């Protein structure tokens, strides 16, 4: 996480410290009135040198990303896919008047018929690149001009589809998608309906995580931040924040706006396959101390002067109370930054 992010998120670690210290004060084992009971063998844990990390955990959910409505066109719908179908470039998304509507890779919608004599434009370049990607780019220069070579490649592509070979890509014959394949999310039309309205919505085919943020987190978390996603079965997998949406957009409910969110993508999308759209945890590392001398939080004893101590089991079974200073607290462990305590010492822990 960036230094800027750490400045805001580190207070989470501070809250953990406060919570843990409060716990130490309130629990019976931490009472200064109690001395170690030499008649019973105490339960101990070893003080150790390790890397201690304080984490910020945010709720997230698995998602296929934003829902996109397929644009409508003229004609009558004669075939439709099913929700959940995966459709790749070069394949028919649905059918109108008995003719397939083909998915082509592109960042902008096609808005006109494309054929010989059409004015130069970026849509021509997009069509030529899509044809070339599909294997129909013989002798063709990818540019803004629709040439006789472009027409020949369009005809070859039309022949492969089994449609009329007229060398013209009419408006509505193809639809631009921004990925190599898409997933049909929902089908809104029925066979025989007019194709004028959007017939279906689609999403990406890859699962990612969408996590809700606070306004402060949305300002401080940056794209490119490495995180860990904890899946429903407890598996921890690496991921990266790819985008942060500050929210604030109106919703269908009056007076409500969209919350800030972070889009998070897996290093290996296959780790989420077959899980479904489940809830997950997103873990941000906010503070880290290397070579920290660490003991369990339950080893802390509150002292009368407002400080802390630990009980150390020495050789021969004697228990010595040692004053200490605490640093970072993460989960159930605390860093010892001062006092006569060394790695390997056996500290008494509460049961």
Question: What distinguishing features does this structure have?
Answer:
351 residues, alpha+beta, conserved putative lor/sdh protein from methanococcus maripaludis s2 fold, Muramoyl-pentapeptide Carboxypeptidase, domain 1, 6-stranded antiparallel β-barrel, 4-stranded antiparallel sheet
Explain the overall architecture.
With 351 residues, the chain is α+β, with helices and mostly antiparallel strands. It has 3 domains: 3-54 and 287-348, conserved putative lor/sdh protein from methanococcus maripaludis s2 fold (Beta Barrel); 58-65 and 206-286, Efflux pump adaptor protein, beta barrel domain (Elongation Factor Tu (Ef-tu), domain 3); 69-203, Orthogonal Bundle (Muramoyl-pentapeptide Carboxypeptidase, domain 1), CATH 1.10.101. It is built from 4 helices and 20 strands. It has helices at 3-26, 122-133, 148-161, 215-220, and strands spanning 44-46, 48-63, 68-69, 77-79, 86-88, 92-96, 99-105, 174-177, 181-187, 200-203, 208-212, 226-230, 236-245, 261-266, 279-296, 301-302, 308-313, 319-330, 333-339, 346-348. It has a 6-stranded antiparallel barrel. A 4-stranded antiparallel β-sheet has the order 3-10-9-5, with no helix packed on it. The model is unreliable at 1-35 (pLDDT under 50).
Portion of residues in helices? Answer: 10-25%
Q: Superfamily at the CATH H level of the largest domain?
A: PGBD-like superfamily/PGBD
Percent of residues in β-strands? 35-45%
Instruction: List SSEs in N-to-C order.
Output: HEEEEEEEHHEEEEHEEEEEEEEE
Distance between the termini: 37 Å
CATH topology grouping of the largest domain: Muramoyl-pentapeptide Carboxypeptidase, domain 1
| Major sheet size, sense and barrel closure | 6 strands, antiparallel, barrel
Total domain units: 3
Oligomer state equals single chain
The computed structural class is alpha+beta
Shape assignment: elongated
Task: Work out the number of β strands.
Answer: 20
Instruction: Quickly count the helices.
Output: 4
